[in-house]
Write a structure and sequence with these properties.
It is built from six helices and six strands, in the order βββαβββααααα. By secondary structure, the protein is α+β, with helices and mostly antiparallel strands. Keywords: Chaperone.
């Protein structure tokens, strides 16, 4: 289980994992275009291969496994087959995640079928990601904020895919903390996917589209966390 907390903007893709043996403790994440986040991560046995940690990070962030580097004690950990003990990773260690690794090579069939990348299909990719947020996550955020405070404003009439259609008896049992974590994680993943979309230097429209999409998703995340903080103060 991961959980996000709000921090502040940072200029680069830069993630920290504070590890603690045998228990789940908060770990801090700071990512381009988004806030600092605090997640939960448990330290595996010392003979666990580094590749296991890389796979878990990739699964959570939705980034290709080799699109980022893992750094510990100022050194890049290059051998994914080495055990984490070889890198001196122990309870309360910090691992930094930075962009700049090699992207995974697509399968031969994918190479043959994939259309040449241009500004038009890059814009379509950005809009597709934003449409998913608008049609799936935004309604859930609206419903969630309404359950926190019936007077909380919703940006649109909400028809939540995960909450609205649930029976009232089951809605009453929904753990609001888990729902806040779920929505925050999904919005963070959307921001990561938008951040991973590159716009070439001359693709001004694509850059504007991505900037606008990031701003909209970030605003939704801010509204989610703002409502959660207001609930805690009330």
């Amino acid at each position: 289980m991961y959980r996000t907390d709000v921090g502040f903007f940072v200029p680069l893709l830069h993630t920290h994992f504070d590890l603690h043996h045998g228990t789940i403790i908060p770990i801090a994440i700071a990512l381009a275009f988004v806030h600092s986040y605090r997640l939960h991560f448990s330290l595996p046995p010392s003979d666990t291969k580094l590749s296991v940690i890389r796979q878990e990070i990739a699964e959570y962030t939705q980034l290709p496994e080799h699109s980022f580097k893992l750094i510990h004690a100022g050194a890049v950990m290059k051998d994914d087959n080495a055990p984490i003990s070889a890198y001196g990773i122990k309870p309360n260690s910090t691992i930094a995640l930075v962009g700049g690794g090699e992207a995974l090579a697509p399968a031969p069939s994918a190479k043959a079928e994939k259309a040449p990348r241009n500004e038009e299909n890059t814009i379509s990719q950005i809009r597709g990601e934003l449409d998913k947020v608008r049609h799936t996550l935004q309604p859930d955020v609206d419903v969630f904020l309404t359950t926190l405070s019936p007077s909380a404003p919703a940006s649109h009439p909400a028809h939540s895919s995960s909450m609205v259609h649930a029976p009232k008896s089951s809605q009453a049992r929904v753990d609001s903390e888990q729902e806040h974590a779920r929505l925050g994680e999904l919005l963070l993943q959307s921001l990561l996917r938008l951040d991973a979309i590159t716009a070439e230097g001359e693709w001004e429209e694509a850059r504007r589209e991505r900037k606008g999409a990031v701003r909209e998703v970030q605003a939704l995340l801010d509204r989610l966390d703002g409502g959660w903080r207001a609930r805690a103060r009330s």
